[in-house]
Amino acid sequence: MSNKTTSTLPLDGVRVLDFTQVMMGPVATQMLADYGADVIKIERPGTGDLSRTSFPNDPAGLVGPVFCSLNRNKRSVVLDLRKDEDKKLVLKLCETADVVVNNFRAGVMERMGFGYETLSRINPRIICAFGTGFGLTGPYAHKGGQDVLAQAMSGVMYRRSNDDQPLAVNATTFADYSAGMHMVQGILLALLQREKTGRGQQITVSLLDSMLAAQTQEACAQLMRGREVNWGAMPLSGVFETSDGALVMVGAFKSDPLGDISRALGIDDLGKDERFRDFAAQVKHKKALQDIFRARYRTNTTAYWLARLEEQDLLCAPVRSLAEALADEQTAINGMVLEADGEVERVRVVGSPIHMSDAVVSIRIPPASLGRHTDAVRAEAAAGRQAAE
């Protein structure tokens, strides 16, 4: 791999040209950067990555928190890819790059002259990772891809815990994040295979495929039995309001879960009620059963009920806001908040969920202002050209 130096980070020496923006691509390249890759983020003049300005009413001169969340440890380079000079610079960088990543619509990289066929002729070891909404070919190939669309078209949005709940957008961008993680996996697999074959290859991931893969159990039940599986609709599980908040309870993995729940709630064993005598009956009378749960939970605090449930070894947890989760002691112990001085302000972001004893993630390069590293990368390319000559 190119540019090898002594380092404890596993991807040291791997150079990545990053054409991505918003989330799916940047979350993938940030993970590569966290573990040592030299990620050169190529941005358009004037605006750069769309997420730089997606946070409303941010003070002028500050790098927005949405951008900061996905772009640490990368170098920002501004190039106008309509200019031959800048296109030639990209092609020069591709001669020694290991990975090129983009999340444009199908065909955009080819039109710019950076498709896999072109780049592999320049550098047979190059790995080109394409992230799309729906795939590189097919009826939706040129349709704009976005997280919410993938939720809708994959069946994720349609599936709810209860049929009487309205259809709604999930507030967390699961499609973008999961597709980004699949992209990381594909890149790492291609790097491993290249060690055996000496050749790079093309990798494609899509939001649609990632959302289908996330439903693998439910999809298999549908494909093989034509049956609906809905883990969120189980009669002994749910979210319940208490006198001062809410908790979630999962009545599973027990020999007599309803009996244990009844004991925790301090009521007669509901399993002796004919309406709830077995799982089929509990499903049929779910509303009546959960109405009993709801009425009981409202009589005391979240902490009180969690203690009672845990005495019965039932799975339970408080329902928290994101702010509460970030302030949790376990979050700090897990090292999930990283801090560093940025160019203008203190940067505080969520760390990597992968913890390696010999490769600790840190903010080596704070999220950069637009084009901060352009001159340095141009100089490196010129030095490489001169050395080759």
Brief account:
This protein has 389 residues and is α/β, with parallel strands linked by helices.
Task: Describe what this molecule looks like in 3D.
- It contains 16 helices and eleven strands.
- A six-stranded parallel sheet has the order 3-2-1-4-5-6, with helices on both faces. Strands 7-8-9 form a three-stranded antiparallel sheet, with helices on one face. A two-stranded antiparallel ribbon has the order 10-11.
- It folds into two domains: 262 residues, 3-Layer(aba) Sandwich (Rossmann fold); 73 residues, no CATH class.
What is the H/E string? EHEHEHEHHEHHEHHEEHHHHEHHEEH
**What is the CATH T-level topology of the largest domain?**
Rossmann fold
Averaged pLDDT: 94
CATH architecture term of the largest domain: 3-Layer(aba) Sandwich
Proportion of residues in helical segments: 25-40%
Number of helices: 16
As laid out across the biggest beta sheet, the strand order is: 3-2-1-4-5-6
Using DSSP, what is the number of strands? 11
Determine and state the CATH class of the largest domain: Alpha Beta
Radius of gyration: 25 Å
Strand content: 5-15%
Shape: elongated
Biggest sheet statistics: 6 strands, parallel
As for the number of domains, it is 2
The N- to C-terminal Cα distance equals: 21 Å
